[in-house]
Amino acid sequence: MKTSPLAPEKLPHLAPIEGVEIGTTAAGIRYKGREDVMVMRFAAASQIAGVFTKSTTAGPPVQWCRAHLAGGEVGAIVVNSGNSNVFTGAPGHDFVHQTVAAAASALSVSPETVFVSSTGVIGELPPVDRMVAGVDAASANLSPDSWEKAARAIMTTDTFPKMATLTRTIGGVDVTFNGIAKGSGMIAPNMATMLVYLATDANVAAPALQSALSDAVETTFNAITVDSDTSTSDTLLLVATGQAKHARIASAKDPDYAEIAGAVHAICLELAHLVVRDGEGATKFAEIRVSGARDVAEAKKVAMSIANSPLVKTALAGSDPNWGRIMMAIGKTDVEIDQTKLTLSIGGIPVAANGSIVPGYSEALVAAHMRLPEVMIETGLGNASPGHSFTVWTSDLTHGYIDINVDYRS
Amino acid sequence: MKTSPLAPEKLPHLAPIEGVEIGTTAAGIRYKGREDVMVMRFAAASQIAGVFTKSTTAGPPVQWCRAHLAGGEVGAIVVNSGNSNVFTGAPGHDFVHQTVAAAASALSVSPETVFVSSTGVIGELPPVDRMVAGVDAASANLSPDSWEKAARAIMTTDTFPKMATLTRTIGGVDVTFNGIAKGSGMIAPNMATMLVYLATDANVAAPALQSALSDAVETTFNAITVDSDTSTSDTLLLVATGQAKHARIASAKDPDYAEIAGAVHAICLELAHLVVRDGEGATKFAEIRVSGARDVAEAKKVAMSIANSPLVKTALAGSDPNWGRIMMAIGKTDVEIDQTKLTLSIGGIPVAANGSIVPGYSEALVAAHMRLPEVMIETGLGNASPGHSFTVWTSDLTHGYIDINVDYRS
């Protein structure tokens, strides 16, 4: 699989975070010749927050994580790629229990603080014996410096590992946030369709961590779409090891909370954009901005309608300034629109206003913008002034998407 | 453009209908070397019913038709292909007025009984001078036997003309229903995304005709989807010339109304299936049946989620029995599901039940079914017993769809 043309030129190096150790191994779950199991071990009393898929056919790993999040404490995270664990019945739940037991034993943590994910083909149970052996092997090679290996071990159809890092200063103390993500198909708005693991050495209690994460998701992972499909396994976990020597942030009312929330939002946005840049078959990264809406939900509905339209996405792929398809996508939602108030611009170039094309419109100018790898589409609905806005990021629909998905399992 | 592999082997011959004359011409609106303007002229006092796109960015032709439908009478229908007339401002309305005036004059009908459609690229106004000349030329070669020419003149990305015909007996008198349709992309559930013109010599008053048409649409044109995109120009018109010598059917309470309603439903379903068979790039015709729902809306929501899922559609294209993707598509709606009650079968072969794959499941058997050009997917939600059901028809997502749409305008 060729690396996405939208991949960053250089992978960032993720420095160790105090209280986080990572082990990986090639367990042979499904793939040959690459690592496919990852364990993360956290310092005692590390705090965790999480957001999960809204799918009603979520699998046993998501059900397990949801049930154990309330405790707020995390000892380990265990992930395998190759097969997801969804619609697998009682053996699927047994797989989770055996994975958790193996990790608890190998890493000396309490089972109820082990969080798990499985990603890959739906409906086929990963082999439990290989998984247990893989957890043992990965737990035997823990290192604080294996973030890139972790990012690679959780990949499925991804063409590059997705990593982000940033530092902030809290009460005079530097804290680091690291994050890795996997995801490239089944990316849709009902919570990011992917796996994402974030860790920081900041000293933050679980409720404050959850508040920051839940707020960040709406305008980051819930604002991207590749193919409008929603994974059954979406999992986003944020761990704070508390090893940084600043005063503990116990709640969202703490004066230092805003700094944490800002950092969580920034790293989520960076990883969300990386997921779109690795959208299956993507050759374009498109930003869709909708403004002048009666409320944010209305702006988001129109933005998602544009971003998910196969005809808009194929026009993006062809660098075709076929703006009529954008009008079609705006018109197909149930949002009431006054065509005479609608405005549209592409790459900052006005295209339509007052119910028709703008005088002097230059298609050549818009076509030149659309040939760039990053395309900006902006529409003002004119339903309220100034009104509410929402921005969505998406990729184009290409032969590459078809190639990948007509025979994903083979 | 190669003919769809799902096209019928033979085109039906549509016999003349008393009271209907058709003229076509090559007006050079956009295409070269083919006909692109069609006029139909109807006997005096012919009755009309119509259903239109729900798009909020519908164009002037749809606005004109909606405004004049209440009169119930029709003198002519005029259609051009090549450019639609959407988001064209005041010149777009002027185009409609000039088209209507030209047809009224050439065909000696009253302007308010002329119905119009334009189909093709959105946002580019068809040249009004060529249209007026085209209406004149088409009106000069009227014939009762030009149904196939009409079906060809309204095509855009269609690979074959779509026609259907059937006869019924009303009060001892034979009546005929003919229909033509165009549509292959921008096919989605908010009313069939296409143009459809039906005519019969039955003697039916407009209110009864409208009732039969509105009822038929929900389970025919509103039950198909190719790409989830909704056209701005969808128009479905049904004309009854009243030339058949049976007693007039004035309302839905008439004892003969059921025969009319049944015929309208049957011809709508046949044409709707033809549209799916000509779905852009289609190589598979898939029927998605959902049962055991709390109500019809719930069944339809799940069926459409499966039918519109790019990952299900690419699995269809690859003849890949990747049933986990169907589970994903079921799970991504907001319909509450109990996984243990869900059943899934493909081609009549049970795949999943009781929360996991069925014992003895043979993937080879399902793969053999999926290699057929017609694929049947059935799911029982188990939310009610027997519960409500809905059936949707769709096509697969292939390289052909991408080819057609990355450069549709060139």
The radius of gyration of chain A is 22 Å
Integer average pLDDT of chain A: 90
Task: Please give the alpha-carbon distance between the first and last residues of chain A.
Answer: 14 Å
In what order do the strands lie side by side in the largest sheet of chain A? 9-16-11-15-12-13-14
CATH superfamily of the largest domain in chain A: L-amino peptidase D-ALA esterase/amidase
Estimate the global geometry of chain A from the Cα principal axes: globular
Assembly classification:
homodimer
**What is the CATH topology of the largest domain in chain A?**
L-amino peptidase D-ALA esterase/amidase
Description:
Two copies of one chain form a homodimer. In chain A, 31% of the residues lie in helices and 25% in strands. The first copy, chain A, is an alpha+beta fold. The first copy, chain A, has helices at 60-68, 89-107, 128-139, 147-153, 206-218, 257-277, 296-308, 310-317, 324-331, 363-370, 399-406; strands at residues 20-25, 37-42, 47-52, 76-83, 114-121, 162-170, 173-182, 195-200, 224-225, 235-240, 285-293, 343-346, 349-353, 356-357, 374-380, 388-395. In chain A, helix 2 (89-107) links the parallel strand 4 and strand 5 (114-121). Chain A has eleven helices and 16 strands.
Element layout with pairings:
The structure is a homodimer of 410-residue chains.
Chain A: E1 20-25, E2 37-42, E3 47-52, H1 60-68, E4 76-83, H2 89-107, E5 114-121, H3 128-139, H4 147-153, E6 162-170, E7 173-182, E8 195-200, H5 206-218, E9 224-225, E10 235-240, H6 257-277, E11 285-293, H7 296-308, H8 310-317, H9 324-331, E12 343-346, E13 349-353, E14 356-357, H10 363-370, E15 374-380, E16 388-395, H11 399-406
Parallel strand pairs in A: 4-5, 8-10, 9-16, 11-15
Antiparallel strand pairs in A: 1-2, 2-4, 3-10, 6-7, 7-8, 11-16, 12-13, 12-15, 13-14
